[in-house]
């Protein structure tokens, strides 16, 4: 309900009309924002940098150490698998090439022990056990020829092939002494 506008009488003052604000305008004014002094921002940045370095550096070094350990372990495992593959081939050759006929059993001795395949042949060996070992080990033909042409004057000889070292000598009275071993020693775990 609206009141009629009053007319003032002589010497009388009109009461002030209440202030009205349009509904679209905000009634409260926004407080002025205070800006941080430059020195406060510099201190905050320095503190952040120090905290970041104190936490980030050890975490980064830890991650680097873990990555190095994993790489070392992977390399060791690969070398160990290769070494075990070489030993496996020696064991299989020993089983496959055991002398079968009566004369070869008497003249030839083929043993596998501790990563070494050893063949000792008699003076009059037929050579079948040696040929089997050369074939199963996939020896290069140049090496098998060299072994076949060995005489007592050549002394102890050796050669490397496919990760193996072959050592042999021949004596006219006792026959051939022949060993095959992995060229490298068994890898040791560097993380132990």
Automatic annotation (TrEMBL):
<protein>
    <submittedName>
        <fullName>Uncharacterized protein</fullName>
    </submittedName>
</protein>
<feature type="compositionally biased region" description="Polar residues">
    <location>
        <begin position="1"/>
        <end position="10"/>
    </location>
</feature>
<keyword id="KW-1133">Transmembrane helix</keyword>
<feature type="compositionally biased region" description="Polar residues">
    <location>
        <begin position="18"/>
        <end position="32"/>
    </location>
</feature>
<feature type="transmembrane region" description="Helical">
    <location>
        <begin position="38"/>
        <end position="59"/>
    </location>
</feature>
<keyword id="KW-0812">Transmembrane</keyword>
<keyword id="KW-0472">Membrane</keyword>
<feature type="region of interest" description="Disordered">
    <location>
        <begin position="1"/>
        <end position="32"/>
    </location>
</feature>
């Amino acid at each position: 309900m609206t009141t009629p506008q009053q007319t003032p009488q002589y010497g009388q003052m009109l009461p002030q009309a209440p202030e009205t604000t349009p509904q679209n305008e905000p009634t409260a004014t926004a407080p002025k924002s205070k800006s941080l002094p430059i020195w406060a921002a510099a201190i905050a940045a320095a503190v952040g940098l120090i905290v970041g370095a104190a936490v980030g550096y050890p975490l980064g070094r830890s991650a680097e150490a873990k990555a190095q350990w994993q790489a070392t372990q992977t390399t060791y495992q690969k070398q160990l698998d290769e070494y075990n593959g070489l030993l496996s081939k020696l064991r299989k050759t020993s089983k496959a090439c055991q002398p079968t006929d009566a004369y070869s059993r008497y003249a030839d001795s083929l043993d596998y022990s501790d990563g070494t395949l050893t063949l000792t042949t008699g003076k009059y060996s037929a050579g079948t056990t040696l040929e089997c070992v050369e074939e199963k080990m996939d020896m290069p033909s140049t090496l098998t020829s060299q072994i076949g042409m060995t005489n007592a004057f050549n002394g102890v000889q050796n050669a490397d092939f496919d990760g193996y070292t072959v050592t042999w000598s021949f004596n006219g009275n006792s026959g051939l002494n022949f060993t095959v071993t992995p060229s490298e020693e068994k890898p040791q775990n560097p993380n132990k």
